[in-house]
Specification:
The chain has eleven helices and 14 strands. The protein has 457 residues and is of the alpha+beta class. It has a four-stranded antiparallel β-sheet with strand order 1-4-14-9. A four-stranded mixed β-sheet has the order 12-11-10-13, covered by helices on one side. A two-stranded antiparallel ribbon has the order 2-3.
């Protein structure tokens, strides 16, 4: 009898502890806040389906597309290409972070903050960004630590100290979800451990989840000599010397950026935003990334399904006969449209989504690996073809899609459906990028369980 009384008391205690929720299904409370906010400098591209590919004649007989209907989810997109000054923020952050770590070797109390993370025995040193770096190098100990960041004395052109851009390496990690999602090759040590569970079927040879984490170390400084690489028999000295460094070009699109550098920039931008959100008790946002080829073309069309150009019409001039994009008009009259080389971003009117320069000025990197047959085998729901090529792979595997055409291209290449490629490890004087971020909010409206509103389509 006493055992029955004890069991009944325990049951009442359990029921009593959970009675604050009144037995209703209300979800976990007091979670992090989520602000469905518009990222600075981005515009929303609403979800929709469209005819991907050109409905016109394949002028070059390239056979690189087969028009088909594709569905794209909502996303945010930069309204302009990333500018020199925006990319310079990344360069300066990498420069300063390297300096802080070096200075932390001689003055950790000033330049580093020790933080205990995840119950580790040793505290993790974090950068104290509030400390000011003395670039005059008056302190002898600090001067000796920072010296490796500068160009060696015997390599200097002008005799003064300059940051050695070869040292500006950005280190980051990413998780290879494509490998993680595979379900073949049962029989590994990891699979035996999780045999019969949802974790069974991991790729052969993977015995630890950490093996899915990839480390990248990328030198992030643009190729400022790309003008001379691309145009060996032309006079581009002014742009070679000053396009990225001079404030006159701050609001021009950054060029000389490889696919890997653009990806590193996106990861850094994500890191910066999530650091801010977590510091203010907000939930993390989706990663910034390069647009997929399907997203880019959908955004470029501006909501007009068959638009050959971002402005909708079939012509490259407006009603007054003025060119409305920066490209190579006529037979090479570069200045007829107002620009010989890249020009300031947002010079021409945006398309109906509010996006500038989706045709001309500079071509833009996409996330997709270029494959001539992609339209035939890729899925029509958020189409995306990906292959993470290594340095050892054949050149054909390193091709990445570029879109939009540039200041040096004829009008065929600035059409919304024209696709071509560049190699992921090359930076060009006519190639830049912009970022996107997947839309995390609901389609529209409030939660139907807590409001009289329903989703609005």
């Amino acid at each position: 009898m006493k055992k029955l009384i004890l069991l009944a008391s325990a049951a009442l205690l359990v029921i009593g502890c959970g009675s604050s929720e009144n037995g209703e299904l209300i979800g976990v409370q007091d979670r992090e806040q989520f602000e469905d906010m518009q990222p600075y400098g981005m515009v929303e591209v609403p979800q929709g389906s469209y005819m991907m590919g050109s409905g016109d004649e394949d002028i070059l007989s390239s056979q690189t597309f087969q028009p088909k209907t594709v569905q794209v989810s909502s996303f945010w997109m930069d309204e302009t290409e990333i500018t020199n000054n925006e990319y310079r923020q990344f360069v300066y952050w990498v420069r300063d972070s390297i300096a802080y770590k070096l200075l932390g070797n001689v003055n950790p109390q000033k330049y580093l903050i020790e933080v205990d993370q995840f119950g580790e025995d040793l505290p993790t040193p974090l950068i104290n960004w509030k400390a000011k770096i003395d670039w005059t190098l008056n302190n002898e100990e600090e001067r000796s630590e920072l010296e490796p960041m500068f160009i060696p004395t015997d390599e200097r052109f002008y005799g003064k100290k300059e940051i050695d851009t070869r040292k500006l390496n950005y280190e980051y990690y990413w998780i290879d979800l494509n490998v993680a999602a595979k379900k073949e090759h049962i029989g590994t040590e990891l699979n035996q451990e999780y045999k019969g569970s949802a974790y069974a079927g991991r790729p052969n040879g993977l015995t630890n989840r950490k093996q899915l984490t990839k480390k990248e170390v990328i030198n992030i400084y643009p190729d400022t000599l790309c003008w001379m690489h691309d145009y060996a028999y032309t006079y581009n000295d002014n742009l070679t010397r000053s396009y990225f460094s001079h404030p006159a070009y701050d609001d021009y699109p950054v060029v000389g950026i490889t696919y890997k550098q653009a990806k590193a920039f996106s990861m850094w931008r994500t890191f910066m935003m999530n650091n801010f959100l977590e510091g203010n008790s907000f939930a993390r946002m989706e990663n910034f990334r390069l647009p997929t080829e399907a997203e880019w073309e959908y955004a470029a069309k501006g909501g007009a399904p068959g638009a050959p150009y971002p402005w909708g019409g079939p012509y490259v001039r407006n009603g007054k006969g003025c060119f409305i994009a920066n490209y190579k008009p006529m037979r090479g009259n570069y200045d007829d449209d107002g620009g010989i080389n890249p020009i300031i971003v947002a010079h021409y009117a945006p398309n109906d989504f509010g996006l500038y320069d989706m045709a001309g000025n500079v071509s833009e990197w996409c996330e997709d690996t270029f494959n001539e047959s992609a339209y035939n085998f890729a899925h029509d729901l958020n189409q995306y073809v990906s292959y993470q090529a290594t340095d050892e792979d054949a050149p054909e595997m390193k091709r990445k899609v570029i879109r939009g055409g540039s200041w040096k291209d004829q009008k065929h290449f600035i059409q919304t459906a024209t696709r071509t490629y560049e190699y992921q490890d090359s930076g060009k004087s006519y190639l830049g990028f912009r970022c996107v971020q997947s839309y995390m909010g609901r389609v529209r409206g409030d939660n139907p369980k807590t409001s009289s509103n329903v989703y609005k389509h």
